[in-house]
Each structure stands twice: as structure tokens, then as C-alpha cells.
Design a protein that fits this description.
This protein is of the alpha/beta class. The chain has 6 helices and 5 strands; from the N terminus they run E-H-E-H-E-H-E-H-H-E-H. It is 42% helix and 19% strand. Helix 1 packs across helix 6 (125-139).
Length: 140
Amino acid sequence: MKRGFFMKILIIDAQGGGMGRQLAASVKKEFPHVEITAVGTNALATANMLKAGPDHAATGENAVIVGCRNADLIIGPVGIAIADSMYGEITPAMAAAVGQSDVKKLLIPINHCNHIIVGVENTSMSNMLEAVVKELKKII
């Protein structure tokens, strides 16, 4: 892989990109040699994720589709795999790209937008991000 990176991680977020920003910052801090691409479904989400210092950033449906083809791992809220979720920001093509990708996906169970993950306890965002980093340590 380019520039000494050993794994390409795609972080996808929508709406304000706050979770994506926190994810990118946490992953970059723990794994500095991982290549992070942050893709927002809208410009605000991408701009917010850029504050965390990902290696690359892009916006929109085609960026999600291309990113899913090029990533070694995909991280984001569970809604990225559900068409029309996140108040309609996840298009059917985006959800299909995530779902059909052969790579491992770390999906964070956010219970809103009429998608409830039964059996998953509501917990704080910081606890969920810690769980993502813990899972990445097993993978990397």
C-alpha cells in the first residue's frame, strides 16, 4: 500500500459527521500507520470528519461506492448498510455498496431513525468508540 500504510480503513458518516470525526480521531491516534478515508454523505459530515485528520476525504454516493471497493475495512453506524436510513441520506446504492463489500465491517448500533437493534444495550458514544478500537486491535 502507498506511503507505508498497511491497512485502508473507510469511515462513513452522515448528518453532522460527529461520530465519524470521533472515529477517525480515535483510530488515527491508536493506529497511526493506518490509512483512513472519511466519506460523508453530505458536505457538512465530510467537513466535520476532516477535523480529525483523515488521510483522505470525499463526499457523496459515488465516494461511498468507490470507497467500499478500495477499503480493507469499513466502519460506521449500522445505518450505512440500510437503504434510506439516516433521514434518507443513505441511498440504496450506498447501502448496497456497503452490504456487498467482501471486507469486514464494524457497524456501530445506533438506535434511531426507526432502526432499533434488539438485544443491544443503549450505551454512550465513548463506550461504543472504545469497543471499535478494541475490535480493531484484534483485527490489525
